Amino acid sequence: MKDAFGAPQSLLVLGGTSEIALATARRLIALRTRRVWLAGRPSPALDAAAVELRDRGADVRTVAFDALDTDTHEEVLGKVFAEGDIDVVLMAFGVTGDQARDEEEPTAAVRVAQTNYTGAVSAGLVCAGALQAQGHGSLVVLSSVAGERARRADFIYGSSKAGLDAFAQGLGDALQGTGVQVLIVRPGPVRTRASAGRPEQPFATTPEAVAGAIVTGLRRRSETVWVPGSLRVVMSALRHVPRPVFRRLPV
């Protein structure tokens, strides 16, 4: 449950090495979150993330979680919830893929879709059911502006995020009145270590900015946040641009 100051006391991160997720965890720990689960594939990076958050004062545990292994989601995540109530679940796993390669290798494209959409549907439903059973909590879903309209440059990734976004919207509607909040986060391109050295993209943001928007959205019990906020207006317009014109835009 949230403490007397309204801050969540426990956090479960699905995608425990995500830079956005870790930036969010740091902010929440600074706001009195004390118990953190980092779920992801076992790796030195996952262990290092746990050490860093422990150094910030949190009780941090890691759990082996694979988005693609949907048959294990109920068991793995059920054990986490069995340890005590979870105030916030942050679904932060996903892969961008490589558009050119994925067009040539359909199995690689399928992996993008299965990770970003199928895995998220499975884990999202498991967590939503557990949050509903405990009667409170928030499920934060990292979507993307790429899901708002398919672009030639990344339509495989964008289509997977479009499916995820639609799923999260419907799940939020299904959970109305249960005490469970679903917060959809739609960031623009995020500058991470992996993107260092690449050309700057329009409406680029940072993990820290996305984390700040998540914390604010949780406090306000928002349904959707855009990062940066100006993307809401931009995408509202781009959504209605005729396709022949849209193809020529530098987006």
UniProtKB/TrEMBL annotation:
Is 4Fe-4S one of the keywords? Answer: no
Q: Which SUPFAM superfamilies match?
A: NAD(P)-binding Rossmann-fold domains
Q: Which UniProt keywords apply?
A: Oxidoreductase
The UniProt record lists the EC number as: 1.1.1.333
A Pfam family reported for this protein in Swiss-Prot or TrEMBL = adh_short
Q: Which GO terms describe its molecular function?
A: oxidoreductase activity
Q: What class of enzyme is it?
A: oxidoreductase
- Matching NCBIfam families: PRK07904.1 (NF005912)
The record's family statement is: Belongs to the short-chain dehydrogenases/reductases (SDR) family.
Q: What is this protein called?
A: Decaprenylphospho-beta-D-erythro-pentofuranosid-2-ulose 2-reductase
